[in-house]
């Protein structure tokens, strides 16, 4: 319900807007429509010729040969929202293609000068047909034949440009490849040479096989070394046992064996043995100091020295003593021979162990170096592979570029040439309709501008919203509304404004009675006896409202005094048809008696006119005499109404507002504007006057 009410208010305001501004809108519409119609009649008709271009994503010949499929491929760089057709459309509209077309056709403008690029593009249209890969190229020109010729020439220039551009791109690519190919080949040869040098230097055939062979060899050597160590331990055990039995180590046994097998040593031993036997016989017979005994002892000692020298010379061992070991028995000889054999075997095993250990260490060192060699080999092989791939790719691309350079690479083709148009693009009916449409828009815009610039309050709602005061009454317009533009005068005569007296049963009279009733509630509640009626500007009808309000209150039996407090532009004496030679100003100046000046105009209603118009009305009103007069009137009458001047005219209304019990603000739509209304509201707030409500006067029922 609330939304429907708002919608009604909005539509109603639009209708009011149209009713108030239709004359100005009609004037603007007429001027614009006549101007457009005149311009259309002086404009030559334009003819439109259209041709069509088909653009494929890839070239058909390239697709069949498989060469150059990426050359000239229609793709977008901005994403899915853009189309390659739009890009090609911009290419057709480019400066180079348009200028070339103009030059080849020798196009001129209306002044006979060479047609400008902007002038050409203004009549050119290049659009993609939705749902297809076709571009529609059209041109408008007063000459139908020229329009068709321009379109066909433009498409030809574009196709030539398209083909030459892509062939130029291929040529540049081929030249680049021809320069890069020898460099790639040199780099490949260098990479292969580096790999060969590396393999030769490190004796590499197959590192993977070599790694497996090294692991196998190391395993075998480790097993062999273990066996050798076991044999050495076994040999040492046997040698130690025999050494204990013989009482000598293997070196001594070897030396004794060598000595015992010497013929000279054995002969010497026999001589020593014979001398020892002779010496023993002589010692039995002779004393030790006997010459023969001494001779034999000396000879024996000499032989022993000779024997000892021969033993040392033969065995290089001074530790061998001359005893029975030099002439061992058969068993001792066998043990000695066994001990020597074991020593010989041990030395062979030790030598074999050292060789095997060294061999294993070499394999271990090689095995540890294999990962580093593999890494280096991978790097070199990677460089070779990359160089070989680059060389192969460049060679392939060079061959493709040479083939593509000799084939048609364009993806665009002409599928429809422009035909000479038979009828113009726009008919006279279109110009009339377009002119009417544009004229309506301009007229509405002008009406809106007039409305925005017009700050006048036009409706009851605007008046209520702007002043923000309690609405006590709405007085309809007395006569049929007439257009008032920034006017402050009323057309009807002053004496005809007393509606309650002349037309007591009219709707306006009822409106005044409703105002009286609403005001009575406030008067009774707040005990108000003296009020002033004022407005924002002159011409809002406050004097008429004051007169009729005073009359309607008097008709209810209330003793009322109506004072014309507008000393600047008095009006009450005209409404009541009274003499204004003496009045309020004369009483303040004490030039006249109050009883002589106040006039009774109806039952319970007296009127005090303004009197002579003074030079300084504000000073008179802001006097002690005026304050005393109001107090006197308050005591002598039940209700006093002061017709005050407008608030924005001078300080009179503000002065009177400080003296009375309350102020009624009158607002008349079509006369007061929002600026003056805002000033009035601020004056009321600043002066601290008791604004008891507002009256909206002269309301047109339609508003």
UniProtKB/TrEMBL annotation:
GO CC term, one of those recorded: plasma membrane
Q: Does the keyword Coiled coil apply?
A: yes
- Could you tell me what reaction this enzyme catalyses? L-tyrosyl-[protein] + ATP = O-phospho-L-tyrosyl-[protein] + ADP + H(+)
Coiled coil ranges (UniProt) are 174-224
Q: Keywords for this entry?
A: ATP-binding, Coiled coil, Kinase, Membrane, Nucleotide-binding, Transferase, Transmembrane, Transmembrane helix, Tyrosine-protein kinase
Q: Which family does it belong to?
A: Belongs to the CpsD/CapB family.
- What's the name of the protein? non-specific protein-tyrosine kinase
Naturally occurring in which organism (per UniProt): Mastigocoleus testarum BC008
């Amino acid at each position: 319900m609330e939304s429907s009410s708002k919608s009604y208010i909005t539509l109603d305001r639009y209708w009011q807007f149209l009713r108030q501004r239709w004359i100005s809108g009609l004037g603007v519409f007429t001027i614009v429509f006549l101007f457009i119609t005149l311009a259309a009649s002086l404009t030559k008709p334009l003819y439109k010729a259209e041709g069509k271009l088909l653009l494929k994503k890839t070239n058909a010949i390239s697709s069949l040969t498989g060469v150059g499929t990426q050359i000239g491929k229609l793709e977008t760089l901005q994403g899915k929202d853009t189309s390659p057709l739009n890009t090609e459309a911009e290419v057709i509209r480019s400066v180079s293609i348009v200028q070339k077309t103009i030059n080849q056709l020798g196009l001129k403008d209306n002044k006979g000068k060479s047609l400008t690029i902007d002038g050409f593009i203004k009549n050119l249209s290049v659009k993609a047909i939705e749902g297809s890969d076709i571009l529609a190229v059209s041109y408008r020109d007063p000459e139908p034949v020229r329009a068709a010729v321009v379109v066909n020439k433009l498409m030809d220039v574009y196709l030539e440009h398209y083909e030459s551009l892509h062939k130029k791109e291929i040529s540049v690519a081929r030249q680049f490849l021809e320069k890069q190919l020898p460099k790639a080949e040199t780099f490949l040869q260098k990479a292969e040479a580096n790999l060969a040098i590396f393999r030769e230097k490190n004796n590499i055939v197959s590192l993977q096989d070599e790694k497996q062979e090294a692991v196998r060899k190391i395993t075998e050597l480790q097993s062999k070394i273990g066996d050798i160590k076991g044999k050495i331990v076994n040999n040492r055990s046997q040698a130690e046992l025999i050494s204990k039995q013989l009482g000598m180590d293997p070196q001594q046994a070897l030396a004794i064996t060598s000595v015992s097998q010497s013929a000279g040593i054995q002969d010497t031993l026999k001589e020593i043995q014979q001398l020892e036997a002779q010496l023993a016989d002589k010692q039995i017979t002779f004393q030790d100091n006997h010459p023969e005994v001494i001779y034999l002892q000396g000879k024996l000692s000499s032989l022993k020295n000779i024997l000892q020298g021969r033993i040392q010379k033969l065995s290089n061992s001074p530790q061998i003593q001359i005893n029975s070991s030099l002439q061992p028995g058969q068993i001792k000889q066998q043990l000695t021979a066994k001990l020597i054999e074991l020593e010989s075997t041990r030395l062979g095993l030790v030598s074999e162990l050292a060789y095997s250990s060294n061999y294993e260490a070499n394999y271990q060192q090689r095995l540890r170096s294999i990962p580093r060699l593999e890494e280096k080999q991978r790097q070199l092989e990677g460089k070779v592979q990359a160089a070989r791939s680059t060389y192969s790719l460049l060679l392939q691309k060079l061959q493709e570029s040479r083939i593509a350079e000799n084939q048609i690479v364009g993806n665009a083709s002409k599928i429809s040439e422009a035909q000479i148009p038979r009828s113009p693009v726009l008919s006279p009916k279109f110009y009339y309709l377009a002119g009417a449409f544009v004229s309506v828009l301009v007229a509405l815009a002008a009406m809106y501008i007039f409305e925005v610039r017009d700050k006048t309050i036009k409706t009851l709602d605007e008046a209520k919203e702007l002043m923000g005061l309690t609405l006590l009454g709405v007085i309809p317009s007395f006569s049929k509304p007439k257009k008032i533009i920034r006017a402050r005068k009323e057309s009807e005569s002053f004496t005809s404004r007393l509606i309650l007296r002349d037309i007591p049963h009219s709707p306006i009279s009822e409106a005044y009675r409703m105002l009286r009733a609403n005001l009575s509630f406030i008067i009774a509640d707040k005990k108000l006896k003296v009020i002033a009626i004022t407005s924002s500007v002159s011409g809002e009808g406050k004097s008429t409202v004051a007169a009729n309000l005073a009359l309607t209150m008097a008709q209810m039996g209330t003793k009322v005094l109506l004072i014309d407090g507008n000393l600047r532009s008095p009006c009450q004496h005209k409404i009541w048809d009274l003499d204004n030679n003496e009045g309020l100003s004369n009483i303040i100046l004490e030039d006249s008696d109050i009883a002589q000046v106040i006039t009774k105009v109806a039952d319970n209603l007296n009127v005090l006119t303004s009197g002579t118009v003074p030079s300084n009305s504000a000073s008179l009103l802001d006097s002690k005499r005026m304050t005393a007069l109001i107090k006197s009137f308050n005591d002598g009458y039940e209700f006093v109404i002061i017709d005050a001047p407008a608030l924005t005219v001078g300080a009179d209304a503000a002065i009177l507002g400080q003296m009375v019990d309350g102020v009624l603000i009158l607002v008349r739509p079509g006369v007061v504007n929002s600026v003056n209304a805002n000033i009035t509201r601020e004056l009321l707030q600043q002066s601290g006057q008791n604004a008891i409500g507002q009256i909206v006067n002269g309301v047109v029922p339609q508003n």
